[in-house]
């Protein structure tokens, strides 16, 4: 997959005018690349979550595909912009997480996040979205309890950095 590729899924998304189905035409699901940022403390992983700008829910840093960047590098770039993360990314994704992104227009857009692990080396104090988000470290179990998406919660609980070699 190149950094310019966009993965599109077609799901039956019925809905009246003004819903995601009508906004996207035929129920297309958009793709974003997410970063599961972690560090090791006393041989136990800690996971970095950030707040979303709108609803202030705990989420992973994520964003759209970027020209001239691999999916993993796009996830790493989002981790820097949204959380100040400097680290190493694996280009092998951990999994897929379906979710609904609320657009500024109020329309809900169905999305799937392809999650890439990022071993954090440093957190910068100053980064592009520092004034717009909070960031916090959690254990795997606590991180899983903070997020709303069941598939993301399961991925966080089962995350095993020992298998990554980062």
Short summary:
With 166 residues, the protein is of the alpha+beta class. It has helices at residues 20-24, 71-83, 140-146, 150-158; strands at 9-10, 28-41, 44-51, 58-59, 62-63, 85-89, 95-102, 108-123, 135-139. It has a single domain (9-149), classed as Nucleoside Triphosphate Pyrophosphohydrolase.
Q: Tell me the helix content.
A: 10-25%
Main sheet attributes: strand count, strand direction, barrel closure: 9 strands, mixed
Fill in the CATH topology. Answer: Nucleoside Triphosphate Pyrophosphohydrolase
What is the rounded Rg?
16 Å
Distance between the termini: 22 Å
For CATH, the homologous superfamily is named as: Nucleoside Triphosphate Pyrophosphohydrolase
Count of helices? Answer: 4
């Amino acid at each position: 997959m190149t950094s310019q590729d966009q993965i599109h899924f077609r799901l039956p998304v019925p809905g009246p005018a003004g819903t995601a189905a009508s906004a996207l035409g035929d129920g297309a699901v958009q793709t974003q690349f997410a970063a599961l940022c972690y560090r090791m403390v006393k041989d136990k992983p800690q996971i970095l979550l950030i707040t979303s700008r709108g609803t202030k829910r705990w989420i992973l840093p994520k964003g759209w595909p970027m020209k001239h960047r691999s999916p993993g590098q796009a996830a790493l770039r989002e981790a820097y912009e949204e959380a100040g993360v400097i680290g190493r990314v694996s280009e092998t994704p951990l999994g897929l997480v379906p979710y609904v992104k609320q657009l500024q227009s109020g329309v809900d857009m169905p999305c799937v996040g392809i999650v890439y692990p990022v071993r954090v080396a440093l957190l910068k104090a100053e980064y592009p979205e520092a004034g717009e988000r909070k960031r916090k470290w959690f254990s795997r179990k606590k991180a899983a309890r903070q997020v709303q998406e069941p598939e993301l919660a399961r991925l966080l609980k089962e995350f095993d950095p020992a298998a990554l070699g980062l």
